[in-house]
Amino acid sequence: MSETSSEEARQIAQGARDRVHFEEEALALADQVYRVARGVSRSKEEAEDLMQETYARAFRSWQQYQPGTNLRAWLLRILTNLNIDRGRRLQRQPDVQPLEEGDYFLYNKLESAIGNENADEERVIERLSQNSVVEALAEVPHDFRDVVVLVDIGDFSYADAAQILDIPIGTVMSRLHRGRRVLKSNLAERAVPV
Amino acid sequence: MQPYLDGVLSDDEVREAKEHLEDCPGCEKRYRFEVTLRRYVRVAADEQMSPELRAKLAGLRTAG
C-alpha cells in the first residue's frame, strides 16, 4: 500500500469513528430533545414523528455539525426548522388574549378558587391538573410557545434560544414575556374551583 | 420579576431585587408563586419518551 492510500485509509477510519461518536452523542441527548419536541407539538404522535424526522436529518447531515459546539442546540435547530416546514405554523394564528389582565391574574384566580388568601403556593398550584398544564401550553400560539418551551422546559439561555430559532435576543425576551402571560391566562381558565 | 427569575440580572440588580423581596411580603409571595409554578409546569410537561420511539431513533443510525 502506498503512503497516500494508507493516509486515505486512516482518514476514512477516523471519519467512521467520528460518525459513530456523533450518533451516540446525539442519541444520548434524545430525552432532552424529546422534552422540547413534546412541548412544541400538539400530540404525542406529532412529537414522535418530529423526533424521527429530526434524527433522520441529523444523521444524514452530521458533517455539518461543528465538533465542540452545542450539539443539543444544533439538534433543536433542526427540530424547530422542521416544525416550521411542516406548516404547523399556518394552522393556528395567535389569538387575541386578555394580556392586560397582567401577571397577577392567574395568581388571583387560583387564590380565589381556594378561597384563602393565606394559602401557600404549593396548595394554590395544586389546583391545576397535569393535563391542564399540557393543554394550556399547547394552546399558546406557536411563536411564543417555542420560546417558552426552550427556556422554561428545555433550560436554554436567551442566547441559545435566539440561535436555535434564528431570531434576535430581544425577540426571545418579548415572546417569552408574552408567552408566559398567555400560558398563565390559559392556566387560569383551567383552575379547578374547590 | 421575570428577569430575576431567569437569572439575567447583573449582580447589583440581583442584590437590589433580593433586598426588595425581603422587605415586601407581597412581592415575596408572588416570587414564591412564580418559582413553584415554573417547577410545576416543567414537571407536568416532562413526559418520557416511549421505548418504541427510542428504538426507532437508534434504528435511524447509519454508522456503527
Order of helices and strands of chain B: HHHH
Which structural class matches the secondary elements of chain B?
mainly alpha
N/C terminus separation of chain B: 49 Å
Radius of gyration of CA atoms of chain B, rounded to a whole number? 20 Å
Average pLDDT score of chain A: 82
Largest sheet of chain A: none
How many DSSP H or I helices of chain A?
A: 11
Overall residue-averaged pLDDT value of chain B: 87
Number of strands of chain A: 0
Quaternary: heterodimer
The total count of helices of chain B amounts to 4
- Percentage of residues in DSSP E strands of chain B: under 5%
CATH topology of the largest domain in chain A: Arc Repressor Mutant, subunit A
Sheet with the most strands, sense and barrel status of chain B = none
Rg of chain A, alpha carbons: 21 Å
Categorize the overall geometry of chain A: elongated
Could you give the count of β-strands of chain B?
Answer: 0
Greatest interface and its participating residue counts: A-B, 44 and 33 residues
Percent helix of chain A: over 70%
Q: Class of the largest domain in chain A, according to the CATH hierarchy?
A: Mainly Alpha
Low-confidence stretches of chain B: none
